[in-house]
């Protein structure tokens, strides 16, 4: 096979199938994919992966999969599902990875929209979902499953095991050895490589069509940026339908030739992370935040001595850890010594138990990350960086270069990417990694990409003095206060949410005199805090209304106010009054989206009475709300909510200037 | 945590202990003061240490002071070996060792030869070790088990009016069922054959606190004498059981391990009139008075219970002390007076001991122990014993002279046995004619 | 393999089995049969002799009277080793796992009859012994995968929740690749979800591996749902035998047992 | 704390079922072996060899033997010393009566003799359990020592029943110094410990543990109780037999049957329990504890007396040593009823999860 | 025949002495499931304390009750310091802890009273009954008869204690089922103190009798070894078992030693009782009076 592969390839590494073939010939014996299965890390080398993928492609072709067809891929991160993407690409088709936890109805839109004929799914569960919507999607002609467990009695002819198809493909490949190479050769960089559906906060999902060229460009710039190579390991555990996973686990892996590692199951991700100890890691802020919370909670149970040691060295790390990681001068010699000691006693072991000992580079993206959180990881020696991007930009607009990490910016534009700020503050992007189009949505495409070829990200931001991009909010959410100053609710909310005690915050201020806020406390963190102080409480509602909790939250709000006062553009957005809600905002009550974003308008309407009280200067307000429990029943929660004033600070910019 | 640290610290100290070279003659005291045999251990080592204290008070051996260090073995062979190994190289090296335990003596038998440290086994251990050609470093001083057994038969014969009168008699041998108890078998069997008495061997399983069946057998067999070869709790139990079975204790003759106060006192009245062997003549001696005056009056006595001064074990310890000191003194005569002797030199001293009556008299111990004269061939040096009787309050000697059995016969047996050992261990016996 | 199970011939049958302990009769004149590939349930109130029946099947108890016909051979009783050897595996009413061992080791024990290594080879742990160990480990991992207990693979069984222990015990029995599987109240003490899982496993085993299953269970819903035929015992006597529907309408059974429930 | 397990993933079952799956453990073990085989011989004094290390290793081997029986197979035994005696006297006779018998073969054969005796005395275990079995094994203890005392042939008709071990010589090299004896014992013990570990982690060990944990279930899944129990008795006795031979040949040199007394059996049982039931590591820890503690206490008391001038009557200090020893056993059992091995395991877990508490 | 009778009687009387020691084991095992290895040490400690006090000038009538008080203090201390932290631990752990206790008690006894051997006179002469000796030619010790009498009184007292008193019934309840006992409100701790106290009392009686026989010395701890085969034979949990077992063991070991011993070199008493007990167990694994072990699965 290498011989033919070489012929096909030439030197053009411009499509993913060609990259795969190249790896198979250049480093055929090295491990390409691992999966924890049956107790051990099963491994496949590049040449095995190439062979499997070929066979799968041939099999698909034998079933009638043609150039231009879309292939739905549904399931957890399984090696064969990754390979299936490449198999589709070999035949000139387009893989459409879908969220595996979506319910059948949610799936049917994509299936219909993308005119899916072929679907490769993980297991019985996904097959069942597809069968549920099959009526609605008459085009769906073949469902291939990876895991045969429980599939014995599905005797519908259109349901087949992937094994069978691969076997069929092997025979097909043998009898038509040139067929697939020909198909691969037909592939062009400007072909659409993958279609990723964006969930979108409003409206129906849109299929973002990305070409081989754009994803390879995006991947390559990242790979070069951090000099990733075939010896790196990454844990592939994020949904395959998310652009982040596609960039890191597929595109970059194909470009750099590093190993992707699929966890055994959702529950074992943390264990598997620890076992593999990846050198390259990617996670949304939420994951890092949860990790930190568990670290802190687990440390609470430690003996007093150990706890003291931990906090002492964490203080040392806060003081100088990030600077030492950045290789900045000016760290006191004593601090360096202490940090080295801390590295033996705390940071090293901590990285180890988190499974991050071997990490060279870790990225976070997808949402804003709290500076404290960010600083924590960097200070214990994990090279965590932020990147900025979206599905439409192959998740690669800005990156933080090593040594130039700022906690509140998303870094500098990636090589080959042009970024400018529109007059209304919106961030505009141009470069090869832009989407080709929204699938079957020419209007939307035209709206998103202007005539100059700039993509409108919808985010508001600005460049700071060092040329780092700072994102403050969604452009459409940015409003004006009554006095005309900028009001960026998400920015303020995120600031509040970075405190571990606050889970959600909703601020109001657009067109108003001052800013007020609803707060949701974090049950875990505050509960723990309360227990340590022997504050008894019976549940969320009770805990939320404790005086001590209010004082705690006020402190948090005031801290955030103090920080805001330093920002010339946002110092008017300090929170004057707040209340702690009597219930947690919940997607089941439609207050949050499924991705846990606040539905601002809905909340404002639902709690109108509370907002009125906030602005009317009342000290408390009674409210009764209907809630939906997990089992579908509904009930009422009521409480007399206190409203509290928070201290605000005069703008500090004047001083700074002086 | 703290304890562990201390242990480490002391272990470290222990390891470094060997380096100090002292101007004192050092004797490790591998003793036992707890456990079932504590009475013997504390009495014996009490006596030996008391005597050494006295020697020091009197100015040492030509000015050389004696020092000693104790180590508790609990009569356990393994711990005894550890004690020996730990103590042997301290304070410039041990000059000699005396474990007062057959098991420990066996455990260090090879080691003392290798370390060139003489070991005395006063009245126990391998009898054939008296053959100094095969066992150059072992000294079963005064009387080995075999000579003692010979002495017993001799005494019984004398009692009957001649050894030949024992012909046709029945002698029961009631023994502790162990190496110790079986040691005199060859001698007794040889005598039985030679003299023509019937030997009835009765084993008492360890620890010997129940002897009903043995004494019933004795009651039925009605032997003329019972030789009691017991140890520890076996002794009072034997006497008590004899009484309850109506066997006259006057006809019971005990080995010296069955002849201490500790063996008879618990038996109470059942012991009155019982006889046993000893190699000390019970009584008071000027030496004991000196001990009381100089050592105990000064509060330096080793025994907690002063009434035990002069008791069998204590006197036996004093006896051991005398012999040790005399051996060192003898060695100094050859290798330099006032110097500290090495183990090898002390060995020479032990091999050339000559504690005669004049010497004993000078020490204030005339008659307390028989004269001892050792040679390269004979590491025993005496072979004499006495018989004592318990009168309900104290032991009284009942043989005016020292009793000695057929030493020639015993000597022959010893040489045979030692020869066999030498062959097994591939040892070439020394040629004593070449020894100076 | 292809189109599901077919219930085959009788492979095990009992005639007039009577068992007593020191005068107390546990079973009296019990007779029934088990067909290949079927799921056969034994039901009855507490103390009806259900567990005793299972104990007779795999040779823990030896009946005083009666005959057992196993694979066409007539015999007075079974013995534990032989029955294990001839492919009868079981679980126990009160979980009988090896508490000191991990889940993995517990299931590995189930494969002991398939292992040829001896203690000398084991001691050297090189060559055949090691190869064998690894080979069987693979099989065991498949069972672990099947029962979805990957995450507790190396946990000592003593620390597991009840439901999981039951699952591990089933795993141990499955490791022997039995032809007949005796399950003594596999769902006792489980919550609804755990019961559903267990049901699924039992059906899968029966279906995919063709294993004959003899089952004691209290949950009537489950029994009637999954079993092919049901024997009803009461006070050591058989009072009913037949398909779930037949049993459901049997007068004696209703009086003795079901009547209480419905 | 020292454990860095991230990235130590297992790609094969062979890797996963190693004795030490964690790299740091392997390194630790390598260091221990290096110390035992190189550093100790270079730096230790003869005292350590002959009074501490050799008995420690020999008792560790005997403890390992008993642990196989009691810890793994669950059969409580109090006759360990008797099996050691069989080993010691058997090897003596093999060496004595067969010319040119290689010592290692003699040890093997003596182990086999002990194993045979073990099988015979293991037969009651098929019916008797728990303390009843333990007390019954005392029959072994007394009977065997009695036989060795009574039957002259065993001791080559030595008048007192004492035997003197021949020199250890392999291929002309005589192991006659404390260090060489130590190395000899170390090699034997290391190899046998490895073999034992292998047994307990494979089917043999599982069969023992199955019988121990739930004998009825073990029987039902096809383990044969008789075979399993007797195998445990045989293997256990084999280990004890070899330990006994080493005790005679590499440690004491001259032994009497009474030396293998019931106290010794108890001592070994203490080692098993203090060290940790069902743990190979525990056998070594237990042996170290029981062998070293009295010595350490003795040394400490001497230290207190001599260097701190704490004058105690000589009898009392021995008694107090005994009391402290007893109190420490009680203390350790209260702190960790499952022995030192469990204590180490907990500590290791803590280190692995450091800085987290659990 | 007469000799046989003599051996038999002697054996039976010795057996009673064994039973006395075995009784202490049974009490503790029955009530707390602890195999108390320290029973021998307790016998030694009790006897040594009594004699020690007596030697200090106290009359026996004072020394013995005082010793009993000390034994109760010891029982309380053992319960508080040793047993309470180990509630619900495995049998073997509890067994082991009593071994630690053995060392401690032995050390304590010798630290207080020294290691020397002491004499104890109870005022009962240990001589053959002349009447029997003269008429039947059978030597039976007066002392043994008294000891047997005391043993029987003790057993009777214990039997009454167990069946008639409230505490005794509570003890039995605990023995049968810890949980049940707890649920009806019997404090386990208190029970343990009582049971160890009673065992201490039995140890004292055994210590006095054995001490008067053989002298009060360390070797008293060895009498425990004589009690073990009695326990195996009689069952760990049965008071009558201890008595009957003692009688059987005593008689048979004497008969074996006298009539069998001479053929095999003698000294077989050490192991014969164990082998006998072992053979017996093979027939009845739970001992003579032990509760039947039912293997349930």
Quick take:
Chain A is an alpha/beta fold. Chain A has 23 helices and 28 strands. A five-stranded parallel β-sheet of chain A has the order 4-3-5-6-7, sandwiched between helices.
Write the layout of secondary structure elements.
The complex is a heteropentamer of chains A (658), B (436), C (262), D (358) and E (297).
Chain C: E1 10-21, E2 24-35, E3 39-43, H1 50-57, E4 65-70, E5 73-75, H2 80-85, E6 88-90, H3 103-109, H4 119-124, H5 128-146, H6 162-175, E7 180-184, H7 192-209, E8 212-216, H8 220-226, E9 229-234, E10 237-242, H9 244-249, H10 251-261
Parallel strand pairs in C: 3-8, 3-9, 6-7, 7-8
Antiparallel strand pairs in C: 1-2, 1-4, 4-5, 9-10
Chain D: H1 13-16, H2 23-43, H3 46-72, H4 80-97, H5 103-122, H6 130-150, E1 163-164, E2 168-170, E3 173-175, H7 178-201, H8 203-213, H9 215-220, H10 225-252, E4 254-255, H11 262-275, H12 280-307, H13 314-335, H14 339-353
Antiparallel strand pairs in D: 1-4, 2-3
Chain E: H1 2-32, H2 39-55, H3 60-83, H4 91-113, H5 130-136, H6 142-164, H7 166-176, H8 178-183, H9 188-214, H10 223-234, H11 239-264, H12 272-283
Q: What is the CATH superfamily of the largest domain in chain A?
A: ANL, N-terminal domain
**Percent of residues of chain A in helical segments?**
40-55%
Mean pLDDT of chain E: 84
* The CATH top-level class label of the largest domain in chain A: Alpha Beta
Q: Specify the overall morphology of chain E.
A: globular
How many DSSP H or I helices of chain E?
Answer: 12
* Level-2 CATH architecture of chain E: Orthogonal Bundle
Give a count of the beta strands of chain A, DSSP E runs of length 2 or more: 28
| Protein chain pair with the most extensive contact, residues per chain | B-D, 56 and 49 residues
Helix content of chain E: over 70%
In total, the number of domains of chain E comes to 1
Report the uncertain regions of chain A: 1-9, 654-658
The level 1 CATH classification of chain E is Mainly Alpha
Mean pLDDT of chain A: 88
Query: Could you say which structural class the secondary elements and strand pairing of chain E correspond to?
Result: mainly alpha
Strand content of chain A: 15-25%
Radius of gyration of chain A over alpha carbons? 26 Å
**In this structure, how is the largest beta sheet of chain A organized?**
5 strands, parallel
C-alpha Rg of chain E, in Å?
Answer: 19 Å
Describe this protein's structure.
The complex is a heteropentamer of chains A (658), B (436), C (262), D (358) and E (297). Chain A has 658 residues and is α/β, with parallel strands linked by helices. Chain A is globular. Chain B is globular, with a radius of gyration of 21 Å. In chain B, strand 8, helix 11 (261-264) and strand 9 form a beta-alpha-beta unit. Chain B folds into two domains: 21-143 and 286-374, Response regulator (Rossmann fold, 3-Layer(aba) Sandwich), CATH 3.40.50.2300; 145-278 and 387-404, Rossmann fold. In chain B, helix 2 (38-57) crosses helix 12 (286-296) and helix 2 (38-57) packs across helix 13. Chain B has helices at 2-16, 38-57, 77-88, 102-107, 109-115, 145-160, 179-182, 185-195, 212-221, 234-244, 261-264, 286-296, 312-335, 343-351, 357-363, 407-425, and strands spanning 25-31, 66-72, 119-120, 138-139, 170-176, 198-204, 225-229, 252-254, 275-278, 354-355, 372-373, 384-390, 395-397, 403-404. Chain C is globular and about 60 Å long. Chain C folds into two domains: 1-87 and 178-262, P-loop containing nucleotide triphosphate hydrolases (Rossmann fold), CATH 3.40.50; 98-176, no CATH class. Chain C is α/β, with parallel strands linked by helices and 262 residues long. In chain C, helix 3 (103-109) packs parallel to helix 6 (162-175) and helix 5 crosses helix 6. Chain C starts with 9 loop residues before the first strand and ends with a helix. In chain C, the strands form two sheets. Chain C has a six-stranded mixed sheet, with helices on both faces. A four-stranded antiparallel sheet of chain C has the order 2-1-4-5, with helices on one face. Chain D contains 14 helices and four strands. Chains in contact: A-C, A-D, B-D, B-E, C-D, C-E, D-E. Chains B and D meet through helix 1, strand 2, helix 3, helix 4 and helix 5 of B and helix 3, helix 6, strand 4, helix 12 and helix 13 of D.
